[in-house]
Amino acid sequence: MDPARLTDSAWSEPLGDALEAAELSVETYYAISPREWASRFRYDLASCHDHPELHFRESAMAQIVRAERSGAARTRYRIVLREPTIFRLAESHDLATVLTTALTHELVHLVRFGQGLAPFEAGEHERSEEEQLVIRISEQAILTRSKGVRAQRFRHFFAEHPFTGVAES
Length: 169
Ligand SMILES: [Zn+2]
Known about the structure:
The chain has one domain (9-160): Collagenase (Catalytic Domain). Helix 1 packs across helix 3 (95-114), helix 1 packs across helix 4 (124-144) and helix 3 (95-114) packs across helix 4 (124-144). A 3-stranded mixed β-sheet has the order 1-3-2, covered by helices on one side. It is mainly alpha-helical. Strand 2 (62-67) and strand 3 (76-81) form a beta hairpin. It is built from 5 helices and 3 strands. Helices cover 47% and strands 10% of the residues. Zinc ion binds next to helix 3 and helix 4.
């Protein structure tokens, strides 16, 4: 057991719920099928504690990296969760809001890479333009799928953390 890692079984329920909400938001926005997470847009989740080599931007809650290719298979991605930042934000916003926002953002990056809408290897300028676009798309995708109190929580979070919604790619 290591509750410092969101990939630990202690967090499987809130993580699973947030992931389901994030996938649904992105599926709706891009009109993709749930099956495509296992075929076109394959990814897994990891903890930043298992990736000490990664550099995160100051406000980032997560980061998407390319995992190794296996033979001729398609590229697989890995969403690396930055727990210290996520848990800190969850002190003033609920964990579901923070996690769903972080995961939705990374899944939007993933679909855009997978569909060839954005290059994985990008220069600094392209990267910051793409980042702004991904922030807007993620917020819109989340709000389209949220109602009532949940939508209010997301709006509040986006307003307070306009650049954390919002991890770097
Ligand atoms: Zn990003």
